[in-house]
Specification:
This protein is an all-alpha fold. It has 4 domains: about 100 residues, Helix Hairpins (Orthogonal Bundle); about 30 residues; about 80 residues, Orthogonal Bundle (Helix Hairpins); about 50 residues, no CATH class.
Length: about 280
């Protein structure tokens, strides 16, 4: 039975093995039905999954900001998610931390025969990527995932999943060979969205908007752009520029609610022009 007074829980010395064991004991105590935390006891895989996704994004955010002290903490939060899920897996008899670690270790060894096996390392990164995909395809076949799109996780961000679906389809030849055809499809889907907005139901608008987003993801793939990364960068740019609007309005003794679109748009254009000048 987990013991909150166990010395290991309060011992912050020691190396990685000790700290992982310490974290496992902490989580076991939190989940203890008799003496644990009521909130932690109530959780299950489904309720914790959104936190896992959130923590992964916070890791990516710290990396994007090159905030290494923050990254240390975010990686700890993400590690906690793994420990949380494995604790629940052990309680239900599904798997353990050892089996989870064994599974990923076996996978990494199998997928890198040029490092851990007899294959030569003398090949390009592109060839290694192609070989990786072949190995993954064989693994999917072994799991009875015989269809082209099997195994693309439903829980991925929608843009990321769209790109992965399109990559899978492209491997079997279902893809436009020329980017001009993708651009033409973008124009077609945009026109259909405008038509839906004017003449059709809201559900039709939602469907057409999804079609346009899907083909935009395809355009990103053909141009070698990560659409999630591109949109994150634009979000960051928008945030920075809007803060610039707020700063300029504050200099004028105003808040955004006391301004209007014309004034804010003029400030936006000044900031945008300064950005472009800074790139030259």
């Amino acid at each position: 039975m987990p013991n909150p007074a166990d010395p290991i829980i309060h011992d912050d010395s020691g190396g990685p093995e000790h700290q992982i064991l310490r974290l496992r004991h902490i989580m076991a105590c939190l989940r203890d039905p008799d003496n644990g935390c009521p909130w932690d006891i109530e959780q299950d895989f489904a309720s914790i999954a959104p936190y896992t996704i959130e923590e992964a994004y916070e890791v990516a955010d710290a990396i994007a900001r090159a905030d290494w002290p923050e990254l240390e903490g975010e990686l700890g939060d993400l590690l906690l998610q793994t420990i949380y899920h494995t604790q629940m897996g052990e309680e239900a008899g599904h798997f353990s931390l050892a089996s989870v670690a064994r599974s990923i270790s076996d996978k990494m060894v199998t997928r890198h025969p040029h490092v851990f096996g007899p294959e030569s390392r003398d090949k390009s990164a592109e060839q290694q990527t192609a070989d990786w995909e072949k190995i993954k395809a064989a693994e999917r076949a072994g799991k009875a995932q015989g269809r082209t799109l099997d195994g693309v996780a439903m829980g991925l961000p929608a843009l990321t999943r769209a790109v992965k679906l399109q990559k899978r389809a492209a491997r079997v030849g279902f893809d436009w060979p020329d980017i001009s055809q993708v651009l033409a499809k973008v124009q077609e889907e945009a026109a259909e969205l405008v038509e839906a907005r004017s003449d059709l139901t809201h559900d039709d608008v939602v469907e057409e908007f999804g079609d346009l987003m899907f083909v935009m993801a395809n355009l990103a793939r053909h141009m070698g752009v990560d659409p999630e990364a591109a949109l994150r960068a634009t979000n960051a740019k928008f945030t920075r520029r809007f803060k610039g609007i707020e700063d300029e309005l504050a200099r004028r003794g105003k808040r955004p609610a006391e301004s209007d679109l014309d004034e804010m748009d003029a400030i936006w254009n000044q900031i945008r022009a300064a950005d472009k000048l800074g790139k030259t």
